[in-house]
Amino acid sequence: MRIQSETIELTKDEKGVVGISIGGGGPYCPCVYVVQVFDKSPAFKDGRIRCGDEIVAINGITVKGERKSAVAQLIQVSLNPVKITINKLEDTNTKGKTLDIVIKKVKHKIVEFMDQDSADALGLSRAILTNDPLAEKEKILEENAEFYRHLVAYFGDMFQYQQKVADCQKEFGSIFCDLAAHEKQQTANEAFSAFGDKHRMIAKKQSESAVPLQKMVSDLQVYIDHVVPDTRLTIKKYLDVKYEYLSYCLKLKEMDDEEVEFISIQEPLYRVETGNYEYRMMLRCRQECRARFMKMRDDVMVKIELLDQKHVRDIAQHLATFAKTMAKCQLECAEILKDRIDVPIEIDLEQLNISMSSNGTKSREDTIEQAEEAQELNDNPLEGDLIDVEDEDVRVTLPRSTSIGDTSQPLLGSDSPLEEPQLSLIDIS
């Protein structure tokens, strides 16, 4: 281990302290070292004094081998500025991350899923784990993500149904346009074309209304697929640093207990008698791990707070956009169907009747008149063979000749007088 000396001048704050706590010293440890540097203190703001550094002199007075209480009193009675000479502890921090630290880190990861009795049996406290406000923030984040998943699923089903309705409207309009194309009457052609075009416009409006809503769903999907996993990964990294920091705290607590135990039985402890370098290394590692822990904790708290605010703001905007878009779509569709379209079915029938009369087709009155004439002929029918006279509406049978005795004479062209011809009405249709 390399040691580098440096003299640092510090000005006490209004409370008369420089902001460090010291440990070690006689009669057990040959050196006095910095145990902790308090936040926002003069030593913390200066940044050159770190945990594990050995204090060699105060204002030029050597304190090597002195008791820590005497060194603390010397700092308190010193006037500003206080000159502190230190031997810096220079070494790679990876040496402090021993197998024992890794095992303790794993224990802290497991203890969150244990009850209090099991955690106490392992020598771990769940207080700092269960009282972490970020744990509650993470639960809220998961609840928001689940809410967004249901919302996206609902919008997906709604878009699917709306698209089906739009397809039906489009198909309906195409059918009426096809009817218009095959319609000979101009008025009916125009009416069917207008009716089909209106349904096609409704289908277009319904399809266009889904565009802003799809952007909204994409924003929600980004929150689910990217924002939440990224935040969860950040929380995971924060917890990893937190468990490591707790592991160093637990390791130092065990080393302190070991020192107290050896002092109580008045036995020397080798690592303490040789300068307690292992303990000082753990102090340095704990300080740096705590700095990472506090920085990451602040970052995660700010990030989750921003996400909560964004969630409240965005969900209100999304729901308002959804309501406005659907209302606008309904109003536009109602506006399209506002003008009435009269399909001229009755006009076509009247034109068809006029066309049939102008073409010389016989009316019902003509048929009745022909039937009456046939009835008059039926009063004096002729005997003998009958001749069928057919018309479109009247069929009459006339006699071919008359019978006188056994001689049959023709009806027409004979010299003998004949009786008047008689008609026999057979059928009138």
CATH superfamily of the largest domain: Arfaptin homology (AH) domain/BAR domain
CATH class of the largest domain equals Mainly Alpha
- Here the CATH topology of the largest domain equals Substrate Binding Domain Of Dnak, Chain:A, Domain 2
Q: Look at the structure and give the mean pLDDT.
A: 76
Kindly state the percentage of residues in helix.
Answer: 55-70%
Number of helices: 11
Strand proportion: 5-15%
Question: Quaternary status of these chains?
Answer: single chain
Which series of helices and strands comes N to C?
EEEHEEHEHHHHHHHHHEEEEE
Biggest sheet overview: 6 strands, antiparallel
Distance separating the two termini: 132 Å
Protein name: PRKCA-binding protein
Pfam families: Arfaptin, PDZ
Subcellular location: Cytoplasm, Cytoskeleton; Cytoplasm, Perinuclear region; Membrane; Postsynaptic density
Domain AH: 129-342
